[in-house]
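FAQ

Q: What does a record look like?
A: Structure on top, sequence underneath. For example:
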């Protein structure tokens, strides 16, 4: 039937949008809201839907042979920030465990410890 037919339309930055012939709506990589930490994004396309009336960044597609050729620059930066925050948190956690383990206490250095 006609519901399986889509037509390409021009989008911004050399991308294309993909419009349903039957519904007149655009194909979208819908997110899963998996990493919304206040950085203004809801996730990476967890599934594909054809229910958008207007074209925005998640309704724009690049057609390529190389699946690793494109990442969205803002998403790459946001994931990098989240990763850096995670690494810093892990280092603080390790230090919180290591300081008492070495023998440092609120009262000073414990006798017979590695820090003494």
């Amino acid at each position: 039937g006609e519901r399986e037919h889509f037509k390409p339309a021009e989008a911004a930055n050399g991308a294309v949008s993909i419009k349903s012939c039957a519904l007149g709506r655009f194909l979208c990589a819908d997110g899963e809201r998996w990493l919304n930490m206040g950085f203004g994004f809801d996730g990476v396309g967890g599934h594909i839907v054809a229910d958008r009336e207007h074209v925005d960044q998640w309704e724009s597609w690049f057609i390529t042979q190389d699946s690793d050729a494109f990442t969205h620059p803002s998403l790459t930066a946001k994931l990098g920030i989240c990763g850096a925050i995670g690494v810093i948190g892990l280092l603080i956690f390790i230090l919180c465990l290591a300081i008492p383990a070495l023998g440092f206490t609120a009262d000073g250095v414990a006798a017979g410890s590695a820090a003494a």
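Q: Is there anything notable about this one?
A: Residues 19 and 26 are 4 Å apart (CA to CA).
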